[in-house]
User: Fold this.
Amino acid sequence: SKHDVNCLWNKVKPPVDYFSRYLDIYNHMTTNSKFHRTTWGRREMARIVIVFDFEWWATKHNFHSVKNLLMTAPSDPELRFMKAANKVSYVHSGNGGDLHRIDNKAVKNDFFDFVLYSQTMEHLYDPFLCVANIRDKLKRGGLVFTSMPTHNRQHSTPFHFFQYSPLAAVTIFVKTGFEIVDVGYYGSWDYEEHLFRTLKWPAPEATNPLYGPMIKKGRVPSNPEKSGLEVNSDRSDHVW
Assistant:
């Protein structure tokens, strides 16, 4: 119903001050050694913002340290910002790791405190089924973090099925029994122009010509508002 859609939309729209935090991302990247040491710190601009939010939410929702963690990619940069007593990798390969049919012997039901799977939703032919399967693996009160593109070039074809608006992403999780705790997203005209012109994921310097050299020298832009990070809730290239 229209009422239901409006309720979901209210969950999607972050407060205005959420976007102002982006303006500090440059200083954050140069001073945060955990992130600075990752190769992601030089790779893809949207993923940088995603990790920036992940670190903030880890403190806000107290998941820097958990008991049981399920992850689909041990190389995910978000893992630098949390610890787990027990880590279980469920990596997609020719021999398994399919979220559509999770192996119950390898991955227990009602067991995990946290599930991390990033940049995966676009490759799932039945995202509702996969998210429901992930829900079954979580303890009551457990958390899941994921990120996905709103605009992207096709990759890992033929296994690239969908792009997601923020509202679509929230709808999938609500319909499969989740409560939405936080929503973040990033959008930039520079990002989109570079992505579709070159068919390559934009590195930080692609969203601002001054950004790359200044970060390498350990300085931040004097005018971060002109950085290519838009303080705009109507533009979205990635959602998490």
Notes: The CA atoms of residues 89 and 208 lie 36 Å apart. The two ends are 24 Å apart (CA to CA). Strands lie at 65-71, 83-89, 112-116, 138-145, 148-149, 185-186, 238-239. The longest strand covers residues 138-145.
